[in-house]
């Protein structure tokens, strides 16, 4: 018997359509039912590629006993966190307030008015090893709701008050000292033995690395580059990186980067590819280019849709268990490659009879002392084993397409096209940009999710800022000024509908559905927050156009971010990339051309690693458009029929240099 989720498009929600639990999506019908029947809401939030979400679904939501309790005493709502990050944000904050931490699956109990009074992550079906089981929890809450509701309502009121409480800001200044402190905090948490930050679980956190790269370059602190290199190399060597098919799993469960939960997400891989590209750009280290290209190629091969957009990710579970798709035995490898080649590959990639993940092995290079970087002569064997892996079982995809995550992918593809001068990535970037412009808009409004032909949900802050940043990255590649125009329009919507008087942005528009609290994330987590993205967006637009309003928005936001972060100065590293631009000197050049062809000499200006540099290309065809975007370009003209380079300072053209 199916429940209301059978009508949804989300793969995660549809996974639960045949549960005995009478699930509803988050909708007016469910919320009104809770009020009418005076029942608490059981809210479960997760996503389709999550291993522990699968575990809890199988153990509890397919369990007739638990379903009976839920159906009798609760209104049960299932939410896909990827298509409703605003709902997830509100109740994950509640979970963190209650428990000090959060994660998925998120389990929350709410009053009919949507106020949380209990929250946790994974719960076993029955009491186990001192952990409360879901059945016991639900039974106790149902009894208390009927017989002693006052305590529940008091807790709900107190937690809700904390959710809507404005944070106390410190007096931290958005200055060079703040940058120095943030870099020192990251350096202090750096794992010198295994790379990355902290102990375990370990997340790639590419925004940490981007900040250290850019701040290290601006400040001349070479020690920060060593942290970046140590982490990039360690992640590549570990099992978190797919040595056969490219791309990274979401995080590692151990300190050594060996054993991940095996889901792969678009946002992780787009951001990591972007980071490896930038690291390659600053040193032309062959390993970084190979990892970046393999990661992008994985996305283009396995996450791309026929419409030009990219899907959310691939599942952690396969063949009925976690990671089976990625695991091998020695016998399997020899069967696929032959005895000699199979033995050589097993020796290289730590595939042993004992196994490193149960009795099977995750390919990795952690203990291989012979090949410190890229094993030579194994390309064909890796590809052959990848194809064998693909033939033995399928790997499920979440075929939602999200505006924000596609914006991140656009950033990575465009950067690869520019830095590697590869037409393949440029074509993919153009295809993606065209798809986003056509497919994510409805009646002139940006939407957040496309799935199964259905475009749904108001775009949120992340959607606007990462789409805009993707377009600006594409401008750096093809110099089409229309990308800047669209990015300015997106930034204008952010300012009008998301920006608070205090200088930060809410996650949702002022015209979107009202939840019990209007969510806003300042700190970066596994991916940069929308506020961090907005700070970088305003900075990029200011440096391209010299519009004072963009600088004011950037500076006000950075002041809020630093005040919010207080002593945790490393909390918003992506936003601090914009602070690097505000604190250290930047460079702007305008290249005035006689035709549409770029001179080879421009490569001497743009080829190196110069995140502080902004380049505007003026041609006879775009001169009028560019002047409207950036009025200071009006007087930039070719000299004596030759392309001329103008170095700018504070929006004022310097003396032209003919090329």
Strand content: 5-15%
DSSP helix count? 24
Structural class: alpha+beta
Strand order of the largest sheet: 1-3-2-4-5
Give helix % range. Answer: 40-55%
Rg, Å, rounded: 26 Å
State the end-to-end distance.
Answer: 73 Å
- Kindly report the average pLDDT value: 95
User: Tally of extended strands?
Assistant: 20
The unreliable regions are none
Q: How would you summarize what this structure contains?
A:
Helix content is 48%, strand content 12%.
Secondary-structure blueprint:
Layout: H1 11-15, E1 23-24, H2 28-37, E2 41-46, H3 51-61, H4 64-73, E3 75-80, H5 85-99, E4 106-110, E5 116-120, H6 134-147, H7 149-164, H8 176-189, H9 206-219, H10 222-237, E6 251-252, E7 260-261, E8 264-265, H11 266-281, H12 286-302, E9 313-314, E10 317-318, E11 321-322, H13 330-337, H14 339-348, H15 379-392, E12 397-398, E13 401-402, H16 403-420, H17 423-439, E14 441-442, E15 445-451, E16 454-458, H18 461-478, H19 482-497, H20 530-545, H21 548-565, H22 573-583, E17 587-592, H23 603-606, E18 613-618, H24 623-629, E19 644-649, E20 652-658
Helix pairs in contact: 4-6, 5-7, 9-10, 9-11, 9-22, 11-12, 11-16, 12-16, 13-14, 16-17, 16-18, 17-18, 18-19, 18-20, 19-20, 20-21, 20-22, 21-22
């Amino acid at each position: 018997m199916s429940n209301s989720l059978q009508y949804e498009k989300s793969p995660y929600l549809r996974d639960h359509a045949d549960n005995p639990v009478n699930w509803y999506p988050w909708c007016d019908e469910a919320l009104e039912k809770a009020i009418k029947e005076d029942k608490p809401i059981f809210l479960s939030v997760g996503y389709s590629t999550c291993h522990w979400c699968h575990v809890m679904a199988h153990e509890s939501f397919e369990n007739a006993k638990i379903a009976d309790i839920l159906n009798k005493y609760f209104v049960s709502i299932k939410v896909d966190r990827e298509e409703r990050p605003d709902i997830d944000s509100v109740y994950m904050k509640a979970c963190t307030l209650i428990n000090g931490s959060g994660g998925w699956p998120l389990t929350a109990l709410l009053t009919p008015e949507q106020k949380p009074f209990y929250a946790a992550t994974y719960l076993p079906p029955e009491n186990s090893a001192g952990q409360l089981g879901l059945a016991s929890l639900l039974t106790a809450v149902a009894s208390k709701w009927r017989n002693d509701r006052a305590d529940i309502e008091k807790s709900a009121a107190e937690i809700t008050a904390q959710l809507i409480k404005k944070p106390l800001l410190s007096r931290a200044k958005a200055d060079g000292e703040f940058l120095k402190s943030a870099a020192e905090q990251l350096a202090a948490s750096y794992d010198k033995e295994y790379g990355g930050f902290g102990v375990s679980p370990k997340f790639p956190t590419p925004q940490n690395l981007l900040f250290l790269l850019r701040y290290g370059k601006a400040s001349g602190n070479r020690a920060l580059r060593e942290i970046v290199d140590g982490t990039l190399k360690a992640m590549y060597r570990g099992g978190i990186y797919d040595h056969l098919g490219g791309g990274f799993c979401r995080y590692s469960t151990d300190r050594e980067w060996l054993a991940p939960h095996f889901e792969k997400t678009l946002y992780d891989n787009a951001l990591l590819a972007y980071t490896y590209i930038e690291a390659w750009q600053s040193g032309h280290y062959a390993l970084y280019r190979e990892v970046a290209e393999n990661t992008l190629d994985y996305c283009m091969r396995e996450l791309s849709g026929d419409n030009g957009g990219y899907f959310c990710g691939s599942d952690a579970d396969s063949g009925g268990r976690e990671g089976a798709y990625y695991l091998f035995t020695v016998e399997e490898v020899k069967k696929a490659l032959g005895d000699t080649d199979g033995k050589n590959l097993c020796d290289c990639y730590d595939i042993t009879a004992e196994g490193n993940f149960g009795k099977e092995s995750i390919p990795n290079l952690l203990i291989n002392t012979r090949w410190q970087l890229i094993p030579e002569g194994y390309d064909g064997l890796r590809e052959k084993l990848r194809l064998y892996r693909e033939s033995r079982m399928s790997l499920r995809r979440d075929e939602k397409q999200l505006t924000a995550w596609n914006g991140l992918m656009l950033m990575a593809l465009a950067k690869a096209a520019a830095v590697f001068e590869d037409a393949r990535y440029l074509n993919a970037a153009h295809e993606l940009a065209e798809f986003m412009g056509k497919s994510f808009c409805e009646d002139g409004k940006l939407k957040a999710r496309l799935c199964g032909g259905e475009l749904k949900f108001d775009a949120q802050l992340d959607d606007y800022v990462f789409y805009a940043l993707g377009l600006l990255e594409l401008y750096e590649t093809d110099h089409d000024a229309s990308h800047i125009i669209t990015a300015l329009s997106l930034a204008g919507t952010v300012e009008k509908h998301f920006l608070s008087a205090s200088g930060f942005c809410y996650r949702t528009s002022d015209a979107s559905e009202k939840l019990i609290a209007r969510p806003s994330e300042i700190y970066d987590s596994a991916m940069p927050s929308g506020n961090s993205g907005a700070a970088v967006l305003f900075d990029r637009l200011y440096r391209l156009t010299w519009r004072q309003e963009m600088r004011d928005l950037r500076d006000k936001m950075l002041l809020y971010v630093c005040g919010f972060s207080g002593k945790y100065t490393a909390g918003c590293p992506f936003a601090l990339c914009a602070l690097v631009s505000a604190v250290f000197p930047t460079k702007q050049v305008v290249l005035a051309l006689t035709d549409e062809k770029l001179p080879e000499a421009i490569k001497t200006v743009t080829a190196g690693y110069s995140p502080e540099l902004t380049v505007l290309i003026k041609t006879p065809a775009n001169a009028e458009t560019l002047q409207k975007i950036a009025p200071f370009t009006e007087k930039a003209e070719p000299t004596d029929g030759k392309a001329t380079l103008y170095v700018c300072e504070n929006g004022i053209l310097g003396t032209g240099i003919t090329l």
